[in-house]
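Researcher: Hi, I'm a grad student and pretty new to this. My advisor asked me to get structures for two proteins we've been looking at. I'm not sure of the right format, so I'll just paste the first sequence and hope you can take it from there.
Model: That works fine. Here's the first sequence with its C-alpha cells right after it:
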Amino acid sequence: MSEKRVYRWTATAVVLLVVSSLVAACGRESGGGGASSSEGKKTLRVALIGPQSGQLASLGDWDYKGVTLAANEINDKGGAGGLKIEITRMDDQGDPTTGGNLARKAVSQKFDVVFGSSSSTISLAMLPILTGAKIPQVTSGQADALTQQKSQYIFLDSPTSTTYDATLAEYVVGKLGKKKIAMITNNGAYGAGEHDAFLAQLKKRGVKPVADKVIPPDQKEMSGPLSQIRTAKPDALFIGAEEVQSGLIAKQARSLGIDATIVEGAPAGTPQYRETAGDEAAEGTIVSSPYLSNDLNEQTRAFAAAYKEAYGETAELHGAKAYDGLQLVAKAVASLDGKVSGEAIAQAMHDISYDGLLGHFDYNDVGVGLSQTHIGVIKNGEVEAVEDAG
C-alpha cells in the first residue's frame, strides 16, 4: 500500500490538485480565442501541441497526420464555414511544463482552437490555461481526470478510460471467466486513470487483483514488479501504460515465463506496442478500442486509402481519432455563420453531433462525446475484431 501511495503522489495527485484549483479560477487568463473578433476573418488558426521527440513522439506523429489529413480535405472543399484551416505544430517534448508554456503561447498568439496534447498528463497541465482563455481544447488523452475538471472547453476525441475498461473487464471476466487478474500500471495521469477505472470494474464483478503494481511512466526495466506478479500465478495481466512501456512490459513478462493473457486498452492496438513487444509476446493480447480496423465501413476504408496515399503508412486508431477531432471542429465552426470565437466554437461543439470513424459523437457538458469500445485480439501481428465478445 505504501508503494502505491508514494507513486500516486509523485506524479498524478499534485497535477490534479493544481489543475482543479486553476480550472475553478477560469476566466483569469486573457488574450485568447474567447475575446477575438471574427470580423474579416479568413483563417481558422489551430495550434497542434504534442510530442515530436521522446518516448511519446509516435503519438504526436499520429495526431499530426490525422489532423493534417482532415485539414487538407476540409480546405479542398472550401474550408470550415469558409475559413481555411491553418495548422501550427508545436513540440511539447512529452513534458507537462513545456505543454503548459505552449498553451500560454497559443493564448498570447490568439489561436482559435488548440489540439493537444497526445498525453493525458500534458493535456491536464494545458487545460486550466486554455479554459481560462475560453479556447476549445481537443485532446487525444482519455484519462477520466480530464473530464472531472468540468470544463466546458475540453473535448476528448475518444472514450474515457472508464469506457475502455468497462468493455475490457466485461469480456475478460464475464466472457473468458478470468478471476486471477494481475495489474501493472504507471502513475502518470493516463496510467493512474487506467488503474482506477479497471480496478473499479473488477470490484463491480467481485474480483480482487492477485497483484497490483504501480511504476513510474519512464521505467524501462520491470523485472522486479513482474517477478512478484509471476509469483501470484495470474491467468490475466492488465497493463495500463503508454505504447512503448506497455510493449516493454509484455516483452519482459513473457521472458520471465508469465503466460497470462495480456489485456489492455488503446495502446495495445497500435503498431508501436507490437513492434516493442515483438510478435511472439504480443500474440493473443486482448484489446479494447473504438477503432479496431480500417475495414469497418466505406467511411473507414476511404480514410485509410487517403492516409496511405498521403503518408505511405497504414492508418490506426490515433490517426483516426485525430481526424475525427478536427472534423468535429470544422462542423462546429460551419454552424456559426461566420460568428467565430473560442466561446462560440465550444458551444457549437456541445450542440452538434457527428458520425465519425470511431462512431457517433455527441458531447456532454464535460467533454465526453463517444462512449463505446469493442474487443479485439492480436493474431499474427494484426488486431482482429472478436465477433462474439458479448
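Researcher: Oh nice, that was easy. Here's the second one.
Model: And its structure:
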Amino acid sequence: MIITPFAYMATQVPLFSPADIVGIQEWWESSNGITLAGSNVETWTGQINSTVLTAITAGSGLLYNAADANVNGKPSLANDGATYSSLRNTTVLSDFTPTQNRSQFYIFRANTGNAGYSMIGGQTSTAGNASEVSAYISAPGATDTLGCYWFSGGSKPSSTSTLNKTYCLIVTYSNVGTAEYYIIDEDGTTSTSSVTGLGANDLNPFTLEIGGYNNGLLYNGLITEFGFVNGIMSASDIADLQQYTLDTYV
C-alpha cells in the first residue's frame, strides 16, 4: 500500500507592527534609530518619517540598555529621576493642525512616582521651553495614578496604577475638544476614560519631548516606544497595539 502524504499550506498571519497603524505619522522604537554618546542616547530617529529627537544636553541623554530584563530583554531608554536628560525635536510637526483628530501612544515602565506630574513624553508648545506643555503623559504620582494632562484646558483623566509595571498608554484627541485614553498593563488589565473641554491650543502644531520634566519633577523609569498618528486610532489598531505590548515586552 502506498501512502501519499497530505500537503497543505498554512495561512500565515502577518505580525503586527505600530508601523501598520492607519495614519501613523511617526514612531520611535528602542531597537532602531539610536545613536549613543557612551551609554547615553544622543539621537533617536523615528521609523516612519525620520524625525530626529536630540539630547537637550550633548552627552547626557537618556541612558540606553540594549537588553533590559525589565522589558523582556528588549532595549530601553531610562531616565533616573534626577538628571534632566530629555530628548527633543526642534522642528514643529506642522502636519497636525487645530482641525485634525490625532492620537499618541507610549510604551513605558515607571519606577517611582512624584508628588505631582512628571512627564514621560508629550508636546511642548514652544521649542526649547519644556515647561510650556500643552499635553503630557504623567508618571504615577503620590497617589499612584497614571493619566494625561492638558495645559490649556480640560481636566486630567487618571487610573490607579502600580509602579514597576510595563504599560501601554494610548490617547486619542478629537477636534471637537474630547480625548479618550486607553491603558493596558503587563497583566493584561485594561482601563479607559475620557475628558472634554480641551482648549484650541491643545490641538496646535507642536514640538516633542520624551523623558522631560514638569515644575522640576523628573520622570523616573523606562521608555521603549512612542508614536503619533493622524486621526483617531481604530478599535482594532488599539487592540493590536495593546497585544503587541504584551507580546513584545512582557
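Researcher: Is there anything I should tell my advisor about the second?
Model: You could mention this: The helical segments are 235-249.
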